[in-house]
Amino acid sequence: MYDFAYHRPKSLSEAVGLLKGKDEARPMSGGMTLIPTLKQRLARPSDVVDLGGVKELAGIKVEGNNVVIGGMTRHAEVATSADVKNAIPALAYLAGHIGDPQVRNRGTMGGSVANNDPAADYPAAVVALNATVTTNTGKHAADSFFKGLFETALGEGELITSISFPKAEKAAYIKFPNPASRYAMVGVFVAKTASGVRVAVTGAGPCVFRVKAMEDALSKNFSSAAIKDIKIPADGLNSDIHGSAEYRAHLVGVMARRAVDAANK
Amino acid sequence: MTISVAMTVNGKSVSGKVEARTLLVQFLREHLGMTGTHVGCDTSQCGACVVHVDGKSIKSCTMLAVQAEGAKVTTIEGLAASADKLHPMQEAFRDNHALQCGFCTPGMVMSAIDMVKRHNYQLDEATVRRELEGNLCRCTGYHNIVKAILAAAPAMKSAGV
Amino acid sequence: MTAETGIGARVKRKEDQRFLTGTGRYVDDLPLARATYAYFLRSPHAHAKIKSIDVSAAKAMPGVVDIFTGKDIADAKVGGLICGWVVKDKHGEPHKAPPHPVMALDTVRYVGDTVAMIVANTHDEAKDAAEAIKVDYDVKPANVDLARALDKGAPEVHAAEAPGNLIYDWEIGVKADVDAAFAKAAHVTKIDIVNNRLIPNAMEPRAAAAEYDKGTGNYTLWSTSQNPHVLRLILSAFVLGIPEHKLRVIAPDVGGGFGSKIFCYNEETMVTWAASRVGRPIKWTAERSESFMTDAHGRDHVTHAELALDKDGKFLALKVETIANMGAYLSTFSTAVPTYLYATLLAGQYTTPVIYANVKAALTHTAPVDAYRGAGRPEATFVIESIVSKAAKELKMDTADLRRKNFIPKEAFPYQTPVALQYDSGNYPPIIDEAIKIADYKGFEGRRAEAKSRGKLRGIGFSSYIEACGLAPSQVIGQLGGGVGQWESAQLKFNPTGNVQILTGAHSHGQSHETTFAQLISDKLGVPFENIEVVHGDTATTPFGMGSYGSRSLAVGGSAIMKAADKIIAKGRRIAAHLMEADVADIEFENGTFKVKGTDKNVPLAQAVFAAYVPHNYPLHELEPGMDENAFYDPANFVYPAGTQICEVEIDPDTGVVEVVNHTAVDDFGNIINPMIVEGQVHGGIVQGVGQALLENAVYDKETGQLVSGSYMDYTMPRADDVPSFKLGYKVTPCPHNPLGVKGCGEAGAIAAPAAVMNAVHDALAPLGVTHVPMPATPLSVWQTIQGAQRKAAE
Question: Quick check: B100 contacting C, CB < 8 Å?
């Protein structure tokens, strides 16, 4: 990798200050994507601002009807948190199936959501649960946060401080992993919350997306039978040696039905 | 950018000057000469580099040395109490022929110990196989590694480690 | 004294202590004072002319010591890499032998071809400088589709030396006889199969480090090699011209090989060559992505085969047409793999009276292809066992019964096949019977029905393999064009205090020689196991040997050790006779002690050894002092392990995911020295075979020639949750021609498994009307196959 200047701020304001002062500064939370990217010399930041020392960003709280998870909370903490398991077991399950145990010990929710890798798991949960992304500058609704391939609504020097997930009446996440990388080739998060039914798909397209037809059908009848005839168009879906767009489109249906069945258990 | 870094490795305080880009595994291998931790890939997948940082298994190829500032690091070299008193996981690997070429072994053993502890010494075959997602072995076909970990779990419990 | 550590015992491994405590020494672990680091700039194109290379800016980069390009190598008159096996085509002409430069001079021929070597004070600095080298490429069309590589108009890899990309057009068997048999056949089964391309992926990436001693003019090369002596021979005699006695090659602990570390590669050559120019040691370790691009790949065949049967299901003839991929350059043993290690195995375990095979070896703009675990034999087994299973389905016969009907009977050994080999021993029916018992074949239909109730398609598949290994009788190898002898060496060096070093020319990179070889000597000479040390991998300390590949270490290397042990006993008897004032003819050796027949007089071996080193009371007039014997063993024949694997899979028809739910292997490896170690070899082999069948595929983009599966992000390595635990069994017919009665066990698992798994997949999908699933049967490919069958059924 190319060398860079390294900073380890102790507070959010210090971190933001460091990021704003530099042209090519990059924040690093768990580093599970950034470090491999740097190793491949695909990025050349002047400065890396390590958020590992910013204590205020980590932690899990239950606030009323919401579970609020700090941006620097590691996947392993989310997966094993009694609060998360109790309030939204599907979210704990999802966190427990990201990458491998070593990745889960380092990777963070904020890092994953901010990076918006098309094959990442968390974006599906954020969208399906209609979560709110809080940053140092404001709040983003889930639907307007993910903009496209590796693109989000985050501005310069804007860091995810926490994400607030409303409790779900029913929810489940089922993923079909890429056989080689084990990233989501298709992951479907189905949730029934106070604000309705949502079906969010990750891995299949360039960015997480909702399946309106399934949401409508499930709103009337929350069962896998209700969506069995809904076909997802393959247009615009990802295609690679492990999965054609048609195959991914097909898998969205299969994973959605399995997720609904799991949510009903 | 050169930075001073200090941490505890296998119970000993160590320090050095590194470039910001120096990975923890490079610090261990090249600065400290502790070559038991291996590098088998460049995409954070093979797990040959797994060590424990503050008690948790991590991939030392995907962590900067400077990120381990002040941390307690345990590597394969730090497991055995003495040459004739290996850690129960090391013993189980030997007893069950869970290694052949030995290259993936350090990472396997470190991941396995963390796995056993996280599951409170209670594991079944399916769990062990799933938990080994981050460790690749090309020699053993995993059969004996799984056997060794299942055997080590109760041994670790009774040894209190 | 030695029962617990002798032949047949499950002795714990000597090598484990260091590997388990992080004190193994692999090449990259070497502390070399003042070392420099090499990085190779590689071609980003599959095929291009190099118009110019400008290294001036790079040379000025921080930490750069020197940079070398193809021109420097050409100017220094460094030889090219060699192919060590001359295969004669069907007209008796030697194969085409295009040059294999150590560094590309004016043309690059695959993605990863070496363009420049940068030597710097650190790895990062070398890599930084590589980015500053300016190479002007004129990109040309690439030929990466094997099926079309020999077509007219396909881009040529070496137009002048190998027109039309054809390396050889080779055949074995009498075509007219086979055609005549087909004319009489009651049934003909045909298959078209692709044996997928694989990347070996030993967990330790290839590495090399070299040092030059100006005072003596000696070079030392540490290399991740399976055969350090052969590597030195090639470098000395053909490539670098450094006299053999001035080049020491050390292969220390090596983290797996599977064939890929047999060959002589560019990087180790360059590092050695440059060490004297740089004047400091040079280290190079491949990044995994470099391993993907540049380790010799494996398999990669396109095959059409036809099997003729009579009305009762007896095989009448087999006809096979194969195109084999060589890649862009001929690697060290590449030419032999799809000929003598493949087509000569096409009889399998069967009495097929006539066989004809035609193999065309083709060049493509891809990485060189060479031996990978099994080398040719997995390809042969896949052809035979696929076509036999398909024939059973077509004839509505039980797949095991059809095999049994055609097995070579026990009485027929030694059995001469129609494709050159003479099988020395074997007894196949008890093997398949045992496998059927362990796998509960009779209960399968019940399990299939139960799976169906869960929405899963369950299938069962057989693979009855034979392999020829324990390479090999040197004269046969010579007649077939092999460039080296295939004996093995051993030296037994006793020390005055009675402990012993076994120096072997074989090399262990996971096979456990330090344990198995020590067991041989513990058993044969009664030396305590802990007093035996196995030394290997250093040309300066071990006798010249051929290294380890082709499941040869025990059958050939172990036999050499036994021969040397016989010499120790013979000498010891004479010493003991002298010490006990008895006649040599009356001296017996048993449990480590020389005894005078019929008396209780005895001399332990250790005492005889001491007497040999302190020869105060010693027959110096007729015996030399010392106890140090060496032996070279050249086998009389290959060895022929055989076995049957039975695989059971369940397929999720909604996703195409194939799960291996049961896998049984019953093998005949002859006598077994350490069952624990043998089982480990079988487990590992099976998983490489399952990997080939279901997961692994080296994919090049057909247009650009880029390696699409160039990392673990895209190349599916088998993980622990991709496979089950295995059920193993053994049958023993000792090898009749080596002193241990042993056959090889290192490759069997990988040879048999792909066909067993794929036959199970076909069996599971047969109810849907599926007759062909391409390998690997990935979820995508299985799903597409099911879709195709459903469309066809709907038509």
Answer: yes
pLDDT in tens, C327-337: 999 999 999 99
pLDDT for res C24? 97
Q: How much is the pLDDT for A22? A: 86
Nearest CA distance, C455 vs chain B (angstrom)? 21
> How many helical (H) and strand (E) elements, i.e. helices and strands, does chain C have?
19, 28
- Give pLDDT, residue C1: 43
Q: How far apart, in whole angstroms, are the C-alpha atoms of residue A229 and residue A180?
A: 30
pLDDT tens column, C113-153: 999 999 999 999 999 999 999 999 999 999 999 999 999 99
| Tens-digit pLDDT profile for residues C188-208 | 999 999 999 999 999 999 999
Task: Please report residues of B whose CB lies closer than 8 A to that of C715.
Answer: none
Nearest Cα of chain C lies from the Cα of B69 at a distance, in angstroms, of 22
Candidates B17, B19, B133, B137: best to mutate against A (most CBs of A within 10 A) is B133
* Residue spans of beta strands (DSSP E) within C635-794: 642-652, 657-668, 727-730
Which residues on A lie below 8 Å from B63 (Cβ)?
31, 35, 106
Distance to chain C for B75, nearest Cα, Å: 8
Residue A208: CATH number of its domain: 3.30.390.50
Long-range own/partner contacts, residues C59-62 (CB < 8 A, 24 or more apart): C59/C129, C61/C120, C61/C125, C61/C128, C61/C129, C61/C132, C62/C125, C62/C128
- Looking at residue B147, which CATH number applies to its domain? 1.10.150.120
Can you read off the two tokens belonging to residue C610?
């001491």
Please name the chains neighbouring B, where neighbouring means 3+ C-beta pairs under 8 angstroms.
A, C
Are both B95 and B63 inside the same structural domain?
no
For residues B61 and B106, state if they share a domain: no
Query: In terms of domains, do B97 and B74 share one?
Result: no
User: Touching check for C713 and chain B: CB below 8 Å?
Assistant: yes
Asked if residue C108 lies in contact with residue C705, where contact means CB atoms within 8 angstroms, the answer is no
A223, A214 contact by CB (below 8 A)? no
Say if residue C652's pLDDT is above 80. yes
- As beta bridge partners, residue C647 has C461, C663
DSSP secondary structure letter of residue C741: -
Q: Which of B3, B21, B59 sits opposite A102 (nearest CB)?
A: B59
Instruction: State whether C713 and A180 contact (CB < 8 Å).
Output: yes
Q: How far is CA C299 from the centre of its chain?
A: 11
CA pair distance C351, C404, nearest whole angstrom: 11
Asked whether residue A160 is domain-assigned, the answer is: no
Chunked mean pLDDT (size 10), chain A, 265 residues: 95 95 92 96 96 95 97 98 97 98 98 97 98 97 97 95 97 98 98 95 98 98 98 97 98 98 97
Give how many domains chain B has, as a whole number: 2
> Which residues of chain A are within 8 Å of residue C695 when distances are taken between CB atoms?
179-180
Q: Which of residues 38-57 of A touch C (CB under 8 A)?
A: 41
Where are the alpha helices (H) located in C52-198, listed in sequence order? 56-59, 70-75, 123-130, 175-183
- The domain of A4 spans 1-54
Instruction: Say whether the ipTM exceeds 0.95.
Output: yes
Question: Where in the sequence is the domain holding B47, given as residue range(s)?
Answer: 2-78
Nearest CB among C288, C684, C719 relative to B43 is that of C288
Q: pLDDT at residue C2 above 60?
A: no
pTM, 2 dp: 0.98
Same domain, B126 and B97: yes
User: Do the domain assignments include residue B10?
Assistant: yes
Indicate whether A39 belongs to any domain: yes
Side chain identity, residue C490? A
Number of domains, chain A: 2
Q: Is A247 on the interface with C (CB under 8 A)?
A: yes
Question: Mind listing the domains of chain C with CATH numbers?
Answer: 16-22+487-633 (3.30.365.10), 32-140+203-256+261-294 (3.90.1170.50), 298-471+637-794 (3.30.365.10)
